[in-house]
Write a structure and sequence with these properties.
The complex is a heterodimer of chains A (about 300) and B (about 325). Chain A has about 300 residues and is mainly α. Chain A contains eleven helices and four strands. The radius of gyration of chain A is 19 Å and the shape is globular. The chains are: A mainly alpha (about 300), B mainly alpha (about 325).
Chain lengths: ~300, ~325
């Protein structure tokens, strides 16, 4: 009984972090029609900067906020200085479908190698801001600690803020319009290029939050060639696809589904089939319901 | 002369001549270069398989490392369990990977662009961990894949590396020659039609799904061959021999060679093999720290990848062809 509850709790926490990464991927996909493989690198970079902020201000929360700002700036810079040129030069011909994928992968490699040059060789530790020892219920230690409570709350909060921006503000309306139809939005006076950059910036912030929250929740050790961030990218992508790659709610639902399924597989089957399960889940969703669990209207557009 | 160079026998002659040049060269350079030559041959096959998939059929794979792993394991298993001769191991690797590829390709044909890229990425991350699940695959240590000493008939001073290079070079030449021919056949034309415009191809009576699946199968078979060649040169197969970076390296090589044409395939392979050496030379010249030594190759390759995608997105060979055509058009005017 306790094992079952613990499995669910583990699933919810890891699902929350996958959701954050999935949100980051969805934001870029919606605004630019690019699956941003560099997101893992951006998150890694922001997390390192977050670590520096922690050393400087001795507050995890200030550092989280500042590193989200930095992550947003990095995202905006990548779009405005790099992706824009790429689309102008390689936006047509046989390479057009492949170029953004290759370019973001190249960026991922570049960010990792540069980080390795600057901070490589020595691992740094990020200590959890609140206790990561599980709550005790009736003599049993549960797999749910104050840290994990904080993670789940932050994800919900971020989700809420983003939904408010998208549904209730003029900027959100412009963002949705340029994602829905760039051409018509441009005719209606929306600055589509700016909106796309804003999408990249929001995604950068979400990715930074995912990185800085995941690190103390996982091993706590940060290194430029960390596998954890590659996995974050892959699981975030799978979560986003389960949710349909178009909607923020879908990203959270997808993250939770993936988190729970993987937690159950990990507890009741075996650790070494986790990846294959995730891959099978991805393929199953793509073949059976390509619009995702919460996708609506028509087929996917890519 | 032009006509001969483009004909079936012309290409055959070219490949045989090229092989002869390689043979002469392998007797004149030192052991390290011979070993690197074997790596180049391996990358040529791997990159060609990805170019076939991406450039000629319009599908992207970030998981070629996983397909290569299937080939490597198939070759090692057939060697260890049946004692198959090395060429038969290669055949087994090709067939096994092509079979796996045809299953994957059926799914892949229904996915497009980023979906396929992400799925193959997930495959590349996930597949190697299967080795820990099944006892026969040898877990983290992996399996030995030893093709044995070179035959005595080749003489006493015929080194093991040279033997590896010979096998790799011949395998790569045969694979490339065969690929050249299939790309000029009905199948090659079908793939190009699908890549250029799926709807138009469908109207012309091409079964788009089948054509894509076939491309994925052929590409997988070649990737399997490359995997067996890789396993042969390092004489083991293990999950760590086929990391995510291998998949990325193959993709990088394909972009540097130009994803839309096969003719530049040597460029990417040479760059991939030479980069560590160049990086070594740079970092030892400036007597720099360990950080620089380990990260410089990755930095160089990534920077080159980004520059190529930004400046010559269709690859250097295609760019030269475009320039030449433009010049010719100007001269005519």
């Amino acid at each position: 009984m306790y094992q079952l509850i613990n499995t669910v709790l583990i699933g919810i926490t890891s699902g929350a972090i996958y959701s954050l990464m999935a949100i980051a991927l969805v934001l870029v996909w919606r605004s630019a029609r690019v699956v941003n493989f560099a997101q893992a690198g951006q998150a890694l970079l922001s997390t390192y900067i977050g670590y520096e902020f922690i050393q400087k201000f001795h507050s995890f929360w200030v550092a989280l906020f500042l590193s989200m700002l930095v992550g947003a700036a990095v995202g905006a810079i990548i779009d405005s200085s790099f992706m824009r040129i790429l689309f102008r030069r390689a936006g047509h011909g046989p390479i057009a479908n492949v170029a953004p994928i290759i370019a973001t992968l190249g960026l991922l490699g570049l960010i990792r190698a540069l980080l390795g040059l600057v901070v490589g060789g020595k691992d740094v530790r990020i200590n959890p801001p609140v206790s990561n020892v599980g709550y005790t219920v009736a003599g049993h230690t549960m797999a749910f600690s104050p840290l994990q409570l904080v993670i789940v709350i932050s994800v919900l909060l971020l989700m809420l803020v983003l939904s408010l921006i998208f549904q209730r503000t003029n900027v959100g309306l412009a963002l949705r319009a340029s994602a829905y139809s760039p051409e018509i939005a441009r005719l209606a006076g929306v600055r589509v290029d700016g909106m796309r950059t804003l999408g990249w910036a929001l995604a950068g912030a979400a990715g930074a939050a995912a990185g800085l929250l995941q690190t103390p929740n996982g091993t706590g050790v940060l290194s430029p060639d960390s596998l954890e961030f590659s996995l974050l990218l892959v699981f975030g992508f799978i979560a986003a696809v389960i949710g349909g790659l178009e909607s923020l709610v879908g990203a959270v639902v997808g993250g939770m589904v993936l988190g729970l399924v993987l937690a159950f597989v990990l507890t009741y089957v075996s650790g070494s089939v986790v990846f294959i399960t995730a891959f099978g889940l991805l393929i199953a969703v793509l073949l059976v319901k390509p619009t995702g669990l919460v996708g609506k209207r028509g087929g996917r557009r890519a | 002369m032009r006509k001969f160079a483009g004909s079936y026998f012309g290409r055959l002659t070219f490949f045989i001549l090229f092989g002869f040049v390689l043979f002469l060269a392998s007797n004149r350079v030192d052991e390290l270069r011979v070993y690197q030559g074997a790596s180049v041959a391996m990358y040529v096959v791997a990159i060609a398989s990805l170019i076939l998939l991406t450039g000629y059929s319009g599908q992207v794979s970030l998981g070629h490392g996983a397909l290569m792993a299937i080939g490597g394991y198939a070759a090692a298993l057939s060697r260890n369990h049946w004692g198959a001769p090395f060429w038969l191991c290669f055949v087994v690797a090709i067939v096994a990977t092509a079979l796996a590829g045809s299953v994957l390709g059926t799914a892949a044909a229904r996915l497009s662009g980023p979906y396929l890229a992400g799925s193959t990425l997930a495959l590349a991350v996930g597949l190697p961990s299967i080795a820990n699940q099944f006892h026969i695959l040898g877990g983290e240590q992996g399996l030995l894949f030893d093709i044995g000493a070179p035959p005595a008939a080749l003489g006493a001073d015929f080194t093991e590396y040279k033997w590896l290079f010979w096998i790799s070079a011949v395998a790569a030449l045969i694979a490339m020659w065969w690929l050249q021919n299939i790309l000029r056949s009905r199948f090659g034309r079908t793939w190009r039609a699908v890549r250029s415009n799926e709807v138009a191809a469908q109207l012309a009576g091409i079964h788009v799904g089948k054509s894509k699946t076939l491309a994925f199968t052929v590409s997988s078979g070649l990737a399997g061959l490359a995997g067996a060649m890789l396993a042969m040169t390092i004489s083991t197969v293990s999950p760590s021999a086929f990391p995510l970076t291998l998949s990325f390296a193959v993709l990088t090589g394909a972009v540097l060679s130009g994803v839309t044409t096969l003719s530049g395939v040597m460029i990417g392979a040479l760059i991939l093999v030479a980069t560590p050496d160049i990086a070594d030379a740079i970092s030892s010249r400036f007597a720099s720290s360990e950080n620089v030594t380990t990260n410089l190759p990755g930095l160089l390759v990534s920077a080159l990848l980004i520059l190529v995608v930004m400046l010559v997105p269709n690859g250097p060979v295609e760019q030269m062809r475009t320039l030449r055509n433009r010049k010719r058009a100007k001269a005519l005017r």
